[in-house]
Specification:
- The structure is a single chain.
- With 264 residues, the protein is α+β, with helices and mostly antiparallel strands.
- It folds into two domains: 13-173, dinb family like domain (Four Helix Bundle (Hemerythrin (Met), subunit A), Up-down Bundle); 189-259, Nonspecific Lipid-transfer Protein, Chain A (2-Layer Sandwich), CATH 3.30.1050.40.
- Helix content is 48%, strand content 10%.
- It has helices at 13-32, 36-39, 50-68, 91-104, 108-123, 141-163, 171-188, 225-232, 238-243; strands at 131-134, 137-140, 194-198, 202-206, 220-223, 247-250.
- A hairpin with a 3-residue loop joins strand 3 (194-198) and strand 4.
- The protein is globular.
- The protein starts with 12 loop residues before the first helix and ends in a 14-residue tail after the last strand.
């Protein structure tokens, strides 16, 4: 899979940095309020508990800190729109690391405080073009932080549903997550026959077929940001979203069921 067919949209690096730190702060507040009963609940992600999910969310940000502590890699740069396609292959290693972090840090609030403080300090001086090592190559810090909005927003939603919390979503983080996953769909299914609308954050065209040029597109899919994120990451199935009226789809090329999820 290559993103060469689609140029990634641009993101404001300062806003993305602020969004990542804000969302991490929201999650810390939510996790701090969890009692042992809710921490022991199943997270709905394999055999993880809510405690393990909460621990994993610190890893999503701590990786930035750990990479900034290392020399900049000389590896070939990985395009931002290639990142979503490489996550599934690392699932087992991520699960093992998550269990280890959860076991080693029973005081989750202390863990969140340490990770948040360390990354906040480093981001104050790290340049946007600083390369960070990722499994498939290297990414500029500015791009990698966009991927952190996906990790944090997706797992905030997981945490809210599993633990019964109501952790808010930073608007910029939710917007960046929605847009990156929408653009990923356009990479996976290039074309211009179908318009996917995720108001108020994203509109993309995708799927091969007759190109729409004016008026109302013949194939239209529309949904809200959280439903889209759940579809794109396999939390919700396409058929179920249709049946529950969480998504509307009109036109013979508006069935996205065979293209989803985009990442696991």
């Amino acid at each position: 899979m290559t993103s060469a067919r689609k140029r990634a949209r641009t993101y404001d690096p300062a806003k993305i940095r602020a969004a990542v730190l804000a969302q991490f702060g929201h999650v810390r507040e939510g996790v701090r309020a969890l009692d042992e009963e809710r921490l022991a609940r199943p997270a709905g992600l394999g055999d993880w508990s809510v405690r393990e999910l909460a621990a994993h969310m610190t890893m999503s940000l701590d990786v930035v800190s750990r990479q900034l502590d290392l020399p900049a890699p000389a590896a070939k740069e990985l395009a931002l729109l290639d990142w979503p396609f490489g996550t599934a292959s690392r699932a087992e290693a991520i699960a093992d690391g998550t269990r280890a972090v959860a076991a080693a840090h029973p005081d989750l609030d202390a863990l969140y405080a340490a990770v948040g403080a360390r990354v906040t300090e480093q981001l104050a001086t790290a340049p946007d073009d600083r390369l960070l090592g990722v499994p498939a190559g290297a990414m500029p810090l500015a791009d990698f932080l966009v991927t952190r909005t996906v990790e944090l927003v997706v797992h905030t939603d997981d945490l809210n549903r599993a633990a019964g919390t109501d952790i808010p979503f930073d608007r910029q983080a939710l917007a960046a997550c929605t847009r990156l996953l929408a653009d990923t769909l356009a990479v996976k299914a290039p074309g211009a026959s179908t318009e996917v609308r995720i108001p108020p954050y994203a509109v993309v065209q995708c799927v091969e077929g007759p190109r729409h040029t004016r008026g109302t597109p013949p194939n239209v899919v529309e949904t809200d940001p959280l439903t889209w994120i759940r579809l794109a990451t396999g939390r919700t199935e396409w058929k179920a979203a249709l049946e529950e009226a969480k998504v509307s789809a009109s036109g013979e090329r508006a069935d996205l069921g065979g293209l989803l999820p985009l990442m696991g």
